[in-house]
Amino acid sequence: MTTTIVAISDTHCSSWDEVHLDIRRAVAEADIAVHCGDFTRADVVDGVRRDARRAIVVHGNSDPVEIRQSLPYVEVFQAEGKRIGVTHPAWGGPEFDLADLLPDFPEPVDIIVFGHLHETVNEYRDGVLFVNPGQAYASFMVPSTIAVVTVTGGDASVEIRVVEPAR
After folding, report:
1. Domain 2-164 has CATH 3.10.290.10
2. Are 119 and 102 in contact (CB under 8 A)?
3. pLDDT digits 0-9 by tens, 42-57
């Protein structure tokens, strides 16, 4: 069996309708949609939850207090025997190391999907697949991107898709 997971992050939009139509379609078509935080408005949270077959969502550092209080910082779920962790670390910068994400998951995970960096990541390290879908809006010099994680028979692969070029 195959499970398709569409991961998005850092939408930074006022409404779900502002999110690019191709991203909204990808969320609706996926088996599981993951949003790694920084919705910035409840309407975006509601849109993901409404349109997704199954939604996994965490809050980010730019989310207002109401969203931070209503959504977890870390979530873990299973797909095809893989334990998948989701988070939005509120730190980063030049000293950022992927291994710094591991303490957020006291039980071992196979895949960590995370937001905040606004840069895509698709890297295996020490048996863990780290995935950052980038940002779900196009800005100056940075395109809008999503990650499509396909889990089949215990194997996982990632495709980073550019949805909208930088403006």
Report:
1. no
2. no
3. 999 999 999 999 999 9
